[in-house]
């Protein structure tokens, strides 16, 4: 074994963790001392690890982990690999740093609370790679010990996402293969519910990349009771199967992996994938092309990438979204809103970190301090009044601090009785003295904003434009300096809650990454009716900050910021960093159940 040979290690273990702080400290110390990079996810119910480093270092890590009795029987999967390059793929996959987080779930099985959550102890029976292969090879023959009995009762179920199955999957003659075609793993329970009759009375053979996703999914199928008992899963996943059958066996194409390798194939070099645009054989995801609407990975060949940088995946096309609804593109990034899609995400929270160890050591948890940023043409007093119900319901766990933005705006009114400003004079009436009205402010302003505030009212030079926020891209530096001062004078703050333009400002802060850590150290952000401004310099890589996104699901009820715009902002955050709460109202922050419960659940992670 070469000392300089690089490798990747994957393993997971479901077990009750008695001391998360101690386990967190172990991983932090051990991985850093061995120079390992990648992801470590810890939960009260187990661990999920994908790390890379020198093979000798990985072997030392495995030995250290094995010394803990909690990991007895763990399947450690090691593969040699090239060194991760500091490129887009390595950054996106988290292989340029070490990320250790405490999470609620090791993998997010559902985007909404399940009435009967599955118990992993009820997972399907494990089949080794050889056993799995034998079942497929012997389809139609009787097997012992509750194994599949005939090909009419046998179905293969792929538990992976659509972009994974595009480039590789199992194929066995005379055996039905079910591909749910899901965008994300948390959509799988809904697919199982909708297609349960295809599984009832069948012997279900499940598989995924390394095995962990099958644990919860197989348990969920079995929890449905009579007719769903016979569920089996490939132990060690596709990775172990390809090690056992290097020619590919019944697996066709490549195995998509969530690290810098992107995919791993067999000795069979045939290509299963195809370019989304021209249909030519293609299975290379290294360019990281994504659907303009839902942001899942798409296969675009080199030639088609030169012709266009806006793509629509097959799922979005299926649901009526095409290129006619794609917003303008500037500097290679979306400049405006996404079109409504069929995603049903309510809350995807499994990877939100509680940032152990606690900042307070063993002391009793204090209230969280949250700095609140109002929207455009509002002020602290107005936002505080509108958020009174929220503040009241959070008072036991959080203190909300409201401040005015630094850019003071002039008094303006529309020339009709539809003016929204409560101080604006109706048509034909005299304006009230400005001193009787509270000043309004903004975090970001239009490029033609002069900074000088008129002492009296003036009429708006055009009707209300719901897309005006797209042109308000100046003034960030002034607001940043102002917020640094607020953090210094009124801090510390655990997080920021931003509404509308305030959410856009908070997102821009998050996009700065570690550049601001010394002066504005955020543990989380809450972005309500937020949007991403078309500022290419801020969106060069996914944002790594725990975030809660709250917005209305009906675009007709929010005249200012549509749900598609807020959903796109959520997509700019690193996979697993964003929790989404959609509500049926308009341009507000909902404070009734279940939305309030979800907000509290998010915040309790940081106490």
From TrEMBL:
It comes from the Eukaryota. It holds the Pfam family FSH1. InterPro entries: AB_hydrolase_fold, FSH-like_dom, Rhodanese-like_dom, Rhodanese-like_dom_sf, Rhodanese_C, TrhO, TRHO_N. Gene3D superfamilies: 3.30.70.100, alpha/beta hydrolase, Rhodanese-like domain. Residues 150-250 form the Rhodanese domain. PANTHER family: THIOSULFATE SULFURTRANSFERASE/RHODANESE-LIKE DOMAIN-CONTAINING PROTEIN 2 (PTHR43268), THIOSULFATE SULFURTRANSFERASE_RHODANESE-LIKE DOMAIN-CONTAINING PROTEIN 2 (PTHR43268:SF6). This is Rhodanese domain-containing protein. It comes from Gossypium tomentosum. The lineage of its organism: Eukaryota, Viridiplantae, Streptophyta, Embryophyta, Tracheophyta.
